[in-house]
Design brief:
The complex is a heterodimer.
Chain A (H helix, E strand, L loop, with lengths): L2 H23 L10 H18 L3 H19 L5 H19 L1 H21 L5 H19 L5 H9 L2 H22 L5 H24 L2 H34 L6 H34 L5 H21 L8
Helix pairs in contact in A: 1-2, 1-3, 2-3, 4-11, 4-12, 5-9, 5-10, 6-7, 6-9, 7-8, 8-9, 8-10, 8-11, 9-10, 10-11, 10-12
Chain B lengths: L8 E5 L5 E5 L3 H34 L1 H24 L7 H5 L2 E5 L7 H9 L1 H5 L5 H9 L6 H6 L1 E5 L25 H13 L5 H8 L3 H4 L3 H17 L9
Antiparallel strand pairs in B: 1-2, 3-4
Helix pairs in contact in B: 1-2, 2-4, 8-11, 9-11
The chains are: A mainly alpha, B mainly alpha.
Chain lengths: 322, 245
Amino acid sequence: MTPKQFENDHGPSWQRLEGMIEQVEKAKPVANVDELPKLFRQACHDLSLAQHRMFGRAIVERLNTLAISGFRVLERRSSGGWERLWQMMMQDFPRAVRAESRLFWFCSAVFWLPFFAFLIITPFDPEWTMSMLGTEGMISMEGMYGEGTNPREYMRGEYGSDFGMFAFYIWNNVSINLRTFAGGLLGGVGSLVILLFNGAYFGSAAAYVNHACNPETFYCFVIGHGAPELLGIVISGMAGMRLGLSFVKPGAYDRKTALVLGGRKAMILITGAALMTAFAAIIEGFWSATPMEPWIKYTFGGCMWTATICYLLLCGRERHEA
Amino acid sequence: MPTALADTLESVELADGVQIHLRVAGPAARSVAWLIDILIFIAIIFILSMVIGLLSSLLIGEEVGNGLLMLAMFILNWFYNVFFEMSAKAATPGQRHMGLKVVSVSGGPVRLPQSMIRNVLRVVDFMPGAYLFGLTCCLCTSRFQRLGDLVADTVVVYADKPMHEGSAIQVNADPMPPPLPLNREEQAAMLQFLERSPRWSDARKMELSDVLEPLTKRRGMGGLLDTVRMALWLQTGGGGKGGRA
């Protein structure tokens, strides 16, 4: 059989398939669309045949294009949208965190150790904290939590409105999460550095407030959004470490496959962490700075911590997991 | 087809058992696409800040305006590419201009998690500056994948050409059977010569047909004519006049 005959024999069915794919991609209703898989398989068969018989570039390339676009059309899946997101947040994400419990404790340690180190050392030797915060950091801490001021007025001055504060927290904090995750690709080092630095920075901020400002204002401000925000940082560190570890310690897979598989797991962790941080930003922007009796703040904060921990521990739990 | 090592065709086996060839795009085309995207990105930011500036002076107040702008920056910064990659064309405006698009290594369309991974990891590819890590990684992998592509299991390929190629060129020559039986590879080479020769200069055509001197016993224009006639004979299966080239 010559290429010409081959093209004459099968051309009409290729043409039908081409037309169908074009219409399906334009999301138009297509007549006889149930024939598409059959035509696609026939085209794949023809492509193999044309490749084997070396029927020349024009035919092979036409069939190659047809096979690629046909595959794309047939393999198209609807992503599931909001329902899928809900399922991820209520099941997959807490499960993924629990499945990596050792990594969770490790990242928590990396974050909390410098935090408490600064908290403990500052009463004896405030130099460390001061150099960590820098002059500007100290001024803004005093502006927010010093005697006779409150965070709301300071932040209002800085960002204008609750909404402005919320937007700033989203922009700043979620970006930090995503960078923590990305830094994990450098063998986990990037994530560790960001975790350590954030632990040290938060620790020195808290220590400086204890040392020089009004601690009650500070703790009233941070207690409400602290749980999702701090755990969000730790979990984005986990996501980065998952990525880094699958490169450093690929286990049974080759490095590339391990990275792809690790990336999928890490993606669930970082999406969850980013959403937790975004949630924290809502609280931080619209609730935390609102002046209220301290006991209300502390009760709310306690509830938030309990709820966040319960969410991570219990959500999407399977029976056998107990 | 004998495997050629020096081209950018990436052969992938589909679930249906057939091999397809993805035409992987290199760093040069992708850099140009990126530059175009950056310009568009800056234009969007510029227009947005104008609109929000106008809105905030009239309606919502400067504070809310600043907040909106910050949110918009956040979304654009991290999700500009994701948004366009999830569209039907699977390409950002810059990539579309260069005829590129993002696909999964399996040949299927790129999915949302893949797109998010490859674009969040862009930060690492950019390090230590000017996409140095990404470029190095691109040049070290056979599919020109940057780090983000490796983790997300994606490649940037040339989008399919429009399905109907340009008009066929008619060659006016009588088919002539080759004096010897040709094997499969030789026949394929002749057919490819016929298909591709209209794009070459006469000198180049003759240079190649001169290689066939043992077969045609002639050089120059005569040899070229005989080569074309033999190829036509092969293409039409020994009958008919003229062929599609």
